Amino acid sequence: MRLLIEEESAVKAYVRRLVPTWHDVEEIVQQTSLIAWKKFNELDNHEKFGGWIMTIARFEALKFRRSLARSPLVFSDKLAEQLADAQGTIDASDADRKHALENCLQKLDEKPRKMILAVYQPGATIREYAHQQSRPEQAVYKSIQRLRQKLLDCVKDTLALGEGS
Fold first, then answer.
1. pTM of the full predicted structure?
2. Each residue's pLDDT expressed in tens, for the chain with a length of 165 residues
3. I want to staple 104 with a disulfide (CB 3.0 to 4.6 A). Which of 75, 78, 138, 154 is the partner?
4. Which residues form a coiled coil (predicted)?
5. Could you name the CATH architecture of 96-165?
6. Alpha-carbon span 57 to 52, nearest angstrom
């Protein structure tokens, strides 16, 4: 059950790329969960659960799409799979960038890291941060601008070297 919960958001995101509405996604994820629950004992290696449940979700989504095939507004299965695969590549790329950014943040000294994390908290503003630190707002903007550039350069270098994943 824990494995299913851990993979649920990834399964939903994948299925959403294959079907037209969130209602359809919920139906397919529910069906996928039932099948996974019933066939869990057939899975030899639990470390491969993510790929296994994605395969089940793919087949369930394609089965659903075949039931919609009479509609002229539905993509072919092949095109839908190509779009989903392309999105999967984009998602992996996003994950690599996020991992690289986290690594680059850790490389910053403590004070700059705390500053950048503070101003990017939900609802936070540079104005509030500057006031809390008794610093001129423009000075904080300049510092943040330099830090963002430093992080961008670090992320680009990290990804170019293949260290992001």
1. 0.45
2. 677 777 888 889 888 888 878 888 999 999 998 998 888 888 777 677 888 889 999 999 988 887 776 555 555 666 666 666 666 655 556 677 888 888 899 999 999 999 988 888 878 888 888 999 999 999 999 999 999 999 999 999 998 887 544
3. 154
4. none
5. Orthogonal Bundle (1.10)
6. 9
